[in-house]
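Hi R.,

Here's the chain you asked about this morning:
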Amino acid sequence: MTKLIECPRDAMQGIHDFIPTQIKAEYINLLLGVGFDTIDFGSFVSEKAIPQLKDTSEVLNKLDLSAGKTKLLAIVANLRGIEEAIKHPQISYLGFPFSVSETFQQRNTNAGIEKSLKTVEELLNYCEKSGKQAVIYLSMGFGNPYGDPWSNEIVEHWAAELAKRGAGIISLADTTGVSSPEKISYLYPHLVSCFPEIEFGIHLHSTPSTWHEKIEAAWKSGCRRFDSSLKGYGGCPMASDQLTGNIATEGLISFLEAKGEDHGLNIEKWEEAVSYSSKVFY
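And here is the predicted structure, written out as tokens:
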């Protein structure tokens, strides 16, 4: 079964005008009714860094998780965020962006790679004690715009360091849309073969003209855990001044249907969420 992770957090975090808490909650509640495996709904990070998500706790308290089996994921960037996030029993997954680019790690979490590796250790320890699960995003996994060293071997090295520390889920993240079918077709199955104990997913950013070939490459490589966002909204505001959008969920749904794959989604509820999204992204 393919696992679909919807990412309203990724879509909303770069929007300048503050989205009212009630609208966020109503939108995410609609998405919860669709039947996604996971909703990446918010983050416990500095308000100065991501002011749009300063109300994550308030949004969480307005969510209705009784309707289905969808799990919630929240992003954390440091120990303070981890300690805040684990207080909430509604959250199943804590996501941490671990970059193979030193420049981006500093921009994204205000800490270098080595210090962030310590944060990963703390995250894994807290998750084990609290019954939650960590999702480590191996960001800038296909290259970076800063001129920092990148190679398949570098990505494999850091994946190995995460594996040593007990990471159970790693999402290979194309933070700025620089991946290609060729890179995906080599790197994804290579990592899976090197670390069979880890569940690997993929978090791609892309332009509208290249998303299909990237998803096709990931699918043929054996990926069955995909991150996407309604209408492809969003990107990482820490990565660059010009955001490269997420993979559009409706495109991914069409792709899976063409493959004859049962995505398990309630399309009527999905269409309700699409209609409501105009109140969020206007």
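One quick note: Residues 3-279 form a domain with the TIM Barrel fold (CATH 3.20.20.70).

Cheers,
M.
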